[in-house]
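Final paragraph of the annual report: two paired records, presented back to back.
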Amino acid sequence: MNIRKALAAVLAAAFICGAAASCSSKDKKAPDKAASAEPTTAPVPGVNFDEAVGVQSGDAYLAVVDTNWDKQYLGGTDEKNQLCYKAGVVHIDGNGDYKVSVTANSTAFQYLASGDPNGDYKVNGIGFAAVIIHDAESVLPNAIITVKNVKVDGRDVELKKKNYTNTEAEAVRTNIFNEWVSDEFLPADARAAEGGLYVNFDTNSPSEINDGSYSAQIVDPAEFKDWTDIEVDFSISGL
């Protein structure tokens, strides 16, 4: 890992922890920090920067960071969110089924990643992935996210464990792959459609459904080597 990527990894780790990269495994969580800035890239012939997609209050999106902590989408449209182009964002307007996605198949991303708007650059793995509902602590505080299916380049990925929902940084989220949260230290407000994972938010009192089957790492990151598209189908309940 070169110096630039190492620095990016440290900064991203600090971002995912929500405060500092030195946080313990008990509280290493990735908050929602969707940027509101407009794309800052100057016009380039053959490149469509108008395909940048940002999120608004109540929108769900697929937050993704690659293995190198270099290419990412965290809901913003600034230069740090290279995967914002053609991102599949959906507004949550009630209980039901929804889909979010990210893709490397855009002229803007290909140009930023490889210098060629018609290139075939593929994203290298995942260092973090989650479905996040922006600003949901205010507008959809009772939302519960249940992941139904994850696809990489049209291929179904095995869900190794069950996902849970929690609230942090003013957002409601479910982790798909977050190595900063261990199965032994899930958030106190972790919940599923069947109920809370802890009694009265006490992490020393697991509920009946908290049988070890819930995790912040529900997929094998090896399934995401050199990808172009990721799609996540999920349902919303509790509203």
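The closing record of the year follows.
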Amino acid sequence: MATGAGPVALAVANEVGNADVWGVDISQEAAALGRDNARRLGLGNAHFRAGDLLDALPRRLCGAIDVFTIHPPYVLRRDLKELPREIRAFEPLQSLTDGSDDGLGLVRRLADAAHDWLKPGGVLLVEVGTYLSRRTQATLRAAGLVDVSWTKDELGVTRVVSGRVPRTNARPSR
């Protein structure tokens, strides 16, 4: 999800040749670039679609997905004006922010839908800005994901937060 030109999707498709990999982005241009990249790399198992998160996926995948990855835009709406001009002027708005007050709007939507789309035991991996790590963990737990954890990079900075759909896939009561 939020695949951009598809670097993560393409890497997974390359490393796991028997995987059926889908990259989704709100941008038509990004999805087209992902398709072009897959074609150039000869990765017939990588598919790219433009759309709003899960709306772009074939319905037949509902309940059949092993892993979701997302590198969401996570600049808070109120912080956009504080970004350096070279970022504000040249980056597409949707690659910077999901328009939410906390920078976790897309993560919340994906975590809430994980029970329907992921297999029981399926995993959601979220690349995060360090300042969003704890809030992302709380968001995944609030959505009923379990085994919430984080991975640090070589500098000791949290980069990925993960959670798993319970193996029984019982939705949390709200």
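The CA atoms of residues 29 and 77 lie 23 Å apart. This concludes the annual technical report; the extension proposal builds directly on these records.
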